[in-house]
Amino acid sequence: MKTVYAAALCCISLAGAAIAQTGETPALTPEQQAHISGNPSRCPEIPPAPELAEPGRGNSAANRMTQANDRYNTWVAAIGPVLLCRQAEVRELRATADAAHALYVARGREFNAGVASQAATCSAWQAQIAEQARLNNRDLPDGHAGMCGADAAQ
């Protein structure tokens, strides 16, 4: 279950860069919505608040207040464990989100290091080809110029 949450939160984290760039909140994809819908809370539903009694005077008003107080106390006893369960769920999701974010940051750094390595190696390779061509008094062969960056990925 934690893996499923981590995957969803990773997707959400990956979308975070796009949100930060555009300033807009993207709509959920059908797959993301299905994931959220397919993972309901393991906690019971939060019970509805009790109906409050109208204040008044006399014995009937006192009886209504006593009954309302009983309903309120029953509700407090019922909602307490539900809120504790929801709080635990939120903390678990936060820990999962933090872990997913840390993984997102690590993968981003790995990607950036790979791009930098590719650019440096490509530039060095192009310089080596140019130097070899110069030493042999030849022009660069077709296809060897401009192969770094976006051209190299094609």
Structural features, described:
The protein is an all-alpha fold. The chain contains 4 helices and no strands. The protein has a domain at 41-114. Helices cover 71% and strands 0% of the residues.
Q: How many angstroms separate the termini?
A: 39 Å
Average per-residue pLDDT, rounded, comes to 78
Helicity range: over 70%
Structural class: mainly alpha
Question: How many beta strands in the DSSP annotation?
Answer: 0
Order of helices and strands: HHHH
Radius of gyration (CA) equals 31 Å
The major pleated sheet works out as: none
Number of helices: 4
Strand content: under 5%
Ranges with pLDDT <50 over ≥5 residues?
1-22
Care to give the gist of this entry?
The chain has 154 residues and is mostly helical. The protein has helices at 2-22, 30-37, 59-135, 150-153.
Question: Could you give the topology of this structure?
Answer:
Elements: H1 2-22, H2 30-37, H3 59-135, H4 150-153
Helix pairs in contact: 1-3
What are its keywords?
single chain, 154 residues, mainly alpha, 71% helix, 0% strand, rod-shaped
